[in-house]
Design a protein that fits this description.
It is built from nine helices and eight strands. The protein is of the alpha+beta class. The protein has three domains: about 20-35 and about 250-290, no CATH class; about 40-130, no CATH class; about 140-240. The radius of gyration is 20 Å and the shape is globular.
């Protein structure tokens, strides 16, 4: 197992890495450790385009004094970011975009046309929301709290937090704000983790956390984050890290398999490349190259 996990502790942990492990140990092993071929997903690319679009309009406003207010400008800059991400994903995966993971069913699959419409709409909602809520961004080392990247330690390993926004609320309380293009998370754990990351990086700790939802252009009610101390989070993330150290990569067979980006390499999902990557496959042959067997799709 030590050979199988060689080098994993040098990897930077993140909240997405943690949730990936919780969602499915086997999926985590295949994608994060084995590095099996990953099928791009339209919802991830679309969500990244929304983040990129909102970041661009905020930086133009804050750093250059330019207000992006025209709807045509929002559409252009968001779709330019989306096209860039699509090109990168296609080049990296070598898989035609028509075969990528997409939400929806049947003829309503949410692919390129869907996201070229929906992503700019979400960014426009952000622009409209910002006009209504002129909250100031906190400053960190001379930079505004816009997509702030902090490298800390949690659970005994290096941990990176990329925080969407850090605004001051109307009562002047510092808050963590996370932009969501999908569903609202069930808990504020991500927000609390980022509040602790800010504190560990040597800055004042954010008191509240909230999500901004791209689907309706509204923010959730701010919630207090005091319970998410480093000791508390060390136990949470440390448990996942110990599971990885122990080689606990149990598959979580269920609905999530339908949208898994490494399903082609997974024995549980009858993936056609499982014999190359999944140790659960009775025909596991790790010395055969993926090139000899074809791509993931």
């Amino acid at each position: 197992m030590s050979i199988h996990l060689a080098g994993y502790e040098s990897h930077m942990w993140s909240f997405s890495r943690y949730t990936s492990y919780l969602r499915c140990g086997k999926g985590y092993e295949l994608s994060r450790i084995i590095k099996a071929p990953q099928l791009p997903s339209w919802y991830a690319i679309g969500g990244n385009a929304v983040h990129g679009g909102t970041e661009q309009v905020d930086r133009l406003e804050f750093l250059m004094g330019e207000n992006v207010t025209a709807e045509d400008d929002v559409v252009a800059l968001t779709n330019a970011k989306l096209d860039e991400l699509i090109t990168e994903a296609e080049a990296k995966s070598g898989i035609d975009p028509s075969k990528w993971i997409a939400g929806g069913r049947g003829k309503e699959k949410q692919r390129s046309d869907h996201w070229h419409t929906v992503a700019p709409e979400m960014v426009q909602r952000w622009v409209d929301w910002r006009k209504e809520h002129r909250w100031e961004w906190a400053m960190f080392g001379g930079e505004p709290g816009i997509e702030l990247r902090l490298e800390i330690e949690l659970g005994g390993l290096p941990f990176v937090a990329v925080i969407d926004r850090l605004p001051y609320l109307p009562d002047e309380s510092l808050a963590v704000l996370d932009i969501k293009s999908g569903q609202k998370p069930k808990t504020p754990l991500q927000l609390g983790t980022y509040a602790t990351a800010v504190e560990l990086a040597g800055y004042p700790r954010p008191k509240y956390g909230l999500y901004w939802m791209g689907k309706d252009g509204k923010h959730t009610e701010p919630v207090p984050l005091a319970k998410y101390t480093k000791d508390y989070l060390d136990q949470i993330f440390g448990g996942a890290i110990e599971g990885v150290r122990a080689g606990n990569f149990s598959p979580n067979e269920g609905e999530a398999c339908r949208m898994c980006d490494v399903a082609a390499a997974c024995y549980t999902t009858d993936g056609h490349l499982s014999h190359l990557y999944d140790r659960l496959d009775p025909n596991y042959q790790p010395n055969v190259t993926a090139e000899e067997e074809g791509k993931a799709a």
